[in-house]
Design goal:
Blueprint lengths: L6 H23 L16 H17 L5 H24 L14 E7 L7 H11 L3 E5 L3 H11 L2 E3 L5 E5 L17 E7 L6 E7 L8 H13 L7 E5 L7 H9 L3 E2 L19 E5 L3 E8 L10 E7 L10
Parallel strand pairs: 1-2, 6-7
Antiparallel strand pairs: 1-11, 2-4, 3-4, 5-6, 7-9, 8-9, 10-11
Helix pairs in contact: 1-2, 1-3, 2-3, 4-5
Length: 320
C-alpha cells in the first residue's frame, strides 16, 4: 500500500497512535472501578473509548506509517475494553414488559430542571401537556413549584426543598426514615393508584468524584429497603452512567429494576447527549410499557419518561 505523503499523514498517524494509547490505558484502568471509586470515574466514558478506537483504527489504515500494527493493537484493546464496560447494560433485563394498551398505566417523568433554567414557562407547558401521573423534579425552587402548581393545580411533596414530587392526586402519606437528611438528598411519598398504593422516591446524588458518593449510595439503599419495594418507583439524577460499577452495584442492592437502558440525558449543550445519568427504577410489581427521552427544555438535562403498567392489572369496573 502506498503511504500518503506529507505532514497531514504524519500528523494523523501520530495523533491516532496517541489517542489509541490513551483510550486503551483508560479502558484497562477502568476495570479497577470494581475496587476504586476514583478508577470508576473512567468507566463513565466507555462509549468514547469504543468510538475513538474505531476512529484511530480507520486513521491508521488510511495513513499507514511505521508502528501502525502497534496502533491497531492499542485500538483493539480500547475497543474491547469499552465494549466490556458497555456489555452488561445491553445484556441485563429491564424487567417485565407490557403492551401499549395495558390497563392501569402511569406515566413517570424525571427531570433535572436546572436552577438557572431560562425557559421555565416552556418546560412547565411541556410537563402539563404530557398528562403525567408522577413528575419528579431535581434542582427545583419556589419559582419552579409555583409555576407548576399555578399551571396544573398538581399536589406537591417536598415543596420546601430542591427535590419535589408533583402528582395530580394528593399523597396518602409520607413515611420518611429520619436521621439521614444530612447524608443524601431525597423525598418520598405514597400515592393512590388504580391497582393499589405505590411508593415514589426521588434523589439527587453528587458527582462521582465526590468522596462521600459511596456513603450516599449506601444510604439510599437503606432508605429504599425501609419501604415496600414491590410497587416502588425511584427516580433521580444519580450522576452516574449504567456502565459505572457503582451504578451496577446499586442495580443489585436496591432490589428494584432500572427501566431505562442507555438513555443519554446529559448534556443538552452537546450535539448529541452522551451520558445517561438520570434513571428510573421500579419494583417487580410494575411492567414497562415505554421509555422515552423528552426534548431540550432549557436545562442541561433532558427529561426521562417511563410509562409503567401493573403486572397484575386493576380489577374491571363493575357496570352500573
Amino acid at each position: 500500500m502506498r503511504r500518503p505523503s506529507g505532514p497531514i499523514g504524519d500528523f494523523a498517524a501520530a495523533a491516532a497512535a496517541v489517542l489509541a494509547a490513551a483510550c486503551a490505558l483508560a479502558s484497562v484502568l477502568a476495570q479497577g472501578g470494581r475496587f476504586s471509586q476514583y478508577l470508576d470515574l473512567l468507566t463513565h466514558f466507555a462509549p468514547l473509548y469504543a468510538a475513538a478506537a474505531v476512529v484511530t483504527a480507520l486513521a491508521t489504515l488510511c495513513f499507514p506509517r511505521p508502528g501502525r500494527n502497534t496502533t491497531l493493537m492499542l485500538s483493539a484493546i480500547a475497543l474491547l475494553g469499552g465494549a466490556a464496560l458497555l456489555a452488561p447494560e445491553f445484556l441485563r433485563s429491564t424487567g417485565p414488559q407490557a403492551a401499549l394498551g395495558a390497563p392501569g398505566q402511569i406515566k413517570v417523568i424525571q427531570f433535572n430542571v436546572a436552577r438557572n433554567n431560562r425557559e421555565l414557562p416552556r418546560a412547565v407547558e411541556w410537563l402539563a401537556a404530557q398528562h403525567p401521573d408522577v413528575v419528579t423534579i431535581n434542582e427545583s425552587s419556589p419559582a419552579v413549584r409555583n409555576a407548576i402548581v399555578k399551571r396544573t393545580g398538581w399536589a406537591v411533596s417536598g415543596g420546601m426543598g430542591d427535590l419535589m414530587i408533583f402528582t395530580p392526586q394528593k399523597r396518602l402519606r409520607m413515611d420518611r426514615l429520619r436521621g439521614y437528611e444530612m447524608v443524601v438528598n431525597w423525598v418520598n411519598a405514597t400515592y393512590p393508584g388504580a391497582s393499589g398504593p405505590y411508593e415514589v422516591m426521588t434523589a439527587h446524588l453528587r458527582w462521582p468524584n465526590w468522596p462521600d458518593i459511596p456513603v450516599q449510595e449506601e444510604t439510599l439503599g437503606i432508605l429504599i429497603g425501609h419501604l415496600s419495594r414491590d410497587r416502588m418507583i425511584v427516580t433521580g439524577d444519580f450522576n452516574s452512567t449504567p456502565w459505572s460499577f457503582i451504578r451496577q452495584r446499586d442495580d443489585r442492592v436496591f432490589g428494584l429494576i432500572r427501566r431505562d437502558r442507555a438513555v443519554a440525558t446529559w448534556p443538552t449543550w452537546a450535539p448529541v447527549p452522551f451520558l445517561p445519568i438520570d434513571h428510573i427504577y421500579a419494583g417487580p410489581g410494575w411492567a414497562t410499557v415505554k421509555v422515552e427521552r423528552g426534548p431540550n427544555l432549557g436545562s442541561d438535562h433532558y427529561p426521562l419518561i417511563v410509562t409503567l403498567a401493573p403486572v397484575t392489572p386493576p380489577p374491571p369496573v363493575a357496570p352500573r
